[in-house]
Design a protein that fits this description.
five-stranded parallel beta sheet; about 20% helix; about 180 residues; seven-stranded mixed beta sheet; UDP N-Acetylglucosamine Acyltransferase, domain 1; alpha/beta; globular
């Protein structure tokens, strides 16, 4: 029988109240706390504990405060910049391409809770990945839902809620986000 972590990784329904998953979230909370409380001159681009936790982040810069659920599912390419207050609920892989920029307070949510209130109360959720291409700019306060892909060079307007894939080179804005300019 698969563990809850294995179910989460496979994109199946799993129980987020599982002790193994809670231990992994505790580890992430400790690394995030170290990042958020370390003096900027000592922290540099990212606190060492957070750098060690993330799936990959060489050449990325994360402002404090920052929050992630697990960390090991976060993959940041060279030149990625996350402004203050970004949250990544990385129950599934989150990939941000080179030179991606996330404004303050951007939120990336991979977790999707069960629609049945009884099952939701039991902690059932499913993890959906988020893929953000290279040279993408996501404006402050935007929310990106799980299962979304944002193409290279796209722009997401501040405060937008992205519920559908964004084509390369497109600009979207609003709640839900709608196409403002056509793809290139």
């Amino acid at each position: 029988m698969a563990s809850e972590r294995e179910k989460m990784a496979a994109g199946e329904w799993y129980c987020c109240l599982d002790p193994e998953l809670e231990a992994l979230r505790d580890k992430a909370r400790s690394a995030v706390h170290a990042h958020n409380t370390m003096p900027p001159a000592e922290r540099g681009a990212m606190a060492p504990a957070l750098q060690a936790l993330l799936g990959s982040a060489a050449g990325a810069f994360l402002e404090a405060p920052f929050h992630c659920a697990y960390g090991f599912n976060v993959f940041l390419e060279q030149g990625v910049y996350l402004n203050a207050g970004c949250t990544i609920l990385d129950t599934a892989p989150v990939r941000i391409g080179a030179r991606g920029m996330l404004g303050p307070g951007v939120q990336l949510y991979c977790a999707d809770h069960h629609r049945d209130p009884v099952l939701r109360a039991q902690g059932l959720e499913v993890a959906r990945p988020i893929n953000i291409g290279a040279d993408v700019w996501i404006g402050g306060g935007a929310i990106i839902l799980g299962g979304i892909a944002i193409g290279n060079r796209a722009i997401v307007g501040a405060g937008s809620v992205v519920t559908r894939d964004v084509p390369p080179g497109a600009m979207v804005a609003g709640n839900p986000a709608r196409l403002i300019t056509p793809r290139d």
